[in-house]
Amino acid sequence: MSRHHLLTFAAALAVTGTVACGGNPPPVAHPAAPPPDSSTGTAATPPGGAPGSGRDAGTAPTSTVVPAPPPTPTMSADAISADPFVNESTDAINQHSPLQPIFFAYDSDQLDDAARHSIEDDAQVLKKYASWVITIEGHCDERGTAEYNLALGERRALAVKAYLQSLGLSADRFRTVSYGKEFPFDPGHAETSWAKNRRAHLMVTSK
Amino acid sequence: MMSKASRMVGLMAASTLVFAAPMRARDTRITSDPLQVRGTPQQPTPPTPPQPQQQTDLTLSLSGSGSHPRLAIPAFIGAGADADLLAAAKTVADVLWDDIDFEQEFDLVSKDAASRVPVAQTVETEPYDRWQELGADALVVGSIQRAPAGFTIDLKLVGVRGADKQQQKFGQSYKGCVFANARACAHFISDDMHQKLRGLDGVAQTHLAFTSDRDAQRLAGRSISAQGQSKEIYISDYDGGNPYRVTANQSLNLGSSWAPDGRTLAYTSWTAGYEDIYVSNIFQARAPFRPAAGDWQKQNQFSSWSPDGTKLAFASDRDGGWDIFVVNRDGTNLHNITNSRRAGIINGTPTWSPSGTQIAFTSDRGGSNQIYIMGADGTGLDKLTSDASSTDRPTWSPAPFNTIAYAAGPGPGHDIVLIDVTTRKTIVLTDQIGDNESPAFAPNGRHVAFRTSRYGKDQIAIVSITGKIQRKVTDAGNNTSPSWSRAPR
Description:
The complex is a heterodimer of chains A (about 210) and B (about 500).
Chain A lengths: L2 H17 L70 H6 L6 E2 L9 H16 L4 E7 L6 H21 L7 E7 L10 H7 L1 E8 L1
Parallel strand pairs in A: 2-3
Antiparallel strand pairs in A: 1-4, 2-4
Chain B lengths: L14 E5 L8 E7 L22 H7 L6 E3 L10 H21 L3 E2 L2 H5 L12 H6 L4 E10 L2 E10 L8 E10 L4 H17 L8 E6 L19 E6 L6 E2 L7 E6 L5 E6 L6 E6 L18 E6 L5 E6 L6 E6 L6 E2 L10 E6 L5 E6 L6 E6 L6 E2 L7 E6 L6 E6 L6 E6 L5 E3 L7 E6 L5 E6 L6 E6 L4 E4 L6 E6 L5
Parallel strand pairs in B: 3-4, 3-5
Antiparallel strand pairs in B: 1-2, 2-7, 5-6, 6-7, 8-9, 8-30, 9-10, 11-12, 12-13, 14-15, 15-16, 16-17, 18-19, 19-20, 20-21, 22-23, 23-24, 24-25, 26-27, 27-28, 28-29
Helix pairs in contact in B: 2-5
């Protein structure tokens, strides 16, 4: 054989040797050792050294727990209502009402600027919740007689109703009633209390 | 000419009372028969016409001087009486003292002073010198005995001094009293004594109706966050005894008004959501009638009965403002008599004149709340008050008086004022203590019940028409809006 042919053969061998990562055979995967046995508190170490290096398949644990697959929920998509009161009773609505009361000066049923703004805000709410029926209660402070205040309270309720109508709301959504001075919101005997009682109070009676 | 000793203002006819306690129906009648004075023939005398403060010869003779005889009420005699009988006797004597004191036709030796005089068992053994020392002109000598359904009280008026000593001036046997309501026995006796001795219709058997929150429940239809507690109608004896509730609608109920028959009660209630007039016969368990037929557009309040009981006056907003309306008690012929019909004017709280031909009411047509008088047919208009502040809630006296009581003042305190409709002179009945409102005349016109804050909470009190505050008649809860009946007929 000529020296030329031998070199070619050796080169060919070297090429194949290089592809095989330098000539060593690739490592063979051994079965992993089982997880430590928690009841003994010690890791189970198979005899013969670290896992993967020995050939002691005869002493490794054989039981395995196949975890159950996660449950598949039954999903659906429901729209979130833009109405925060959709599931609330009228009682619950009235306890944290979106409708502001309207306050009055002593012995008066006139609407000042603040009163009109409150009614305008209430009108916005009522346009949004177009099915709501409202009872407008008229209240008074304790200074007039019980009898006079029943009439004054009715006038206050009617003044609010009239302004709401002027803002485009239908009259048949509103009822008026007077409670005079019978149910004060603040039982005190000074102007700070009286001012809170001179009011028209809006109650949602159906929705 | 009959001697003083034998002259007796004793009526032959027994006076009877239909003793009907509403809700506790009983068929008991108290009757009164004259007691015979030994050896003196009974002389029937015609009944004297009822006039206030008319004195009879008997009472003049008892007093000797001055117009008010002074009585003393010793402990009632109860020979062989058991504990229940003695307790009933004590109740009757106590309540009788209070009833006599109330009408102010007789002076009285105080209960305290009388209790220190030794108890006697017979008229003859009364220590007359002790009673004389206490200034008594006559003793009210009572004795109690058991009867089949309750007990009997024999009552005698016996002179104390001089020729009248030990002489019986008046004697009645009161039968039909019951243990369950010994107070009613005393009330019957008081009215009988005042009728026979003073020619006076007393009020001891009359009743009050009023509004109270004492059993307050959550006001139906209002949210819990709003402070709405129910105010219901109650009835009691004129002195506040035996109170009981007559409405149970968990609503606001005000403005009770007794019909002249003493059995029918009108009131304003919010039970339907809006205010309307309800008429109830309190002795019958029937649903009330609504003569004004209210709804959300026709709200009605503060009814007042005509003196003949055939009509109601009330305030209603059905014609645009607040006007005074009149309707028959069966709901027919409802019509507007003030005809303001304008949203700016408030007319309210009507009350009828004693003749039934006029109605007084409150109106702010002149700028402030004042009282006006109009014919019941809507004709004529007369302004009664022109106070610098406001006047409200008139109540017109019964005959023979012609006065109107009302609440006056700028608030928060009001006073009850009495005005003579003929002379227009006024007297202030209360004393600028607390807030005093909603006056109601006694059926004999001698007292006015009203609501007052002078005791702390709202209570019903009674003032005489001379301005003496005599009694607080309620206790529990807040009590307002009184009305005063005649005894039921």
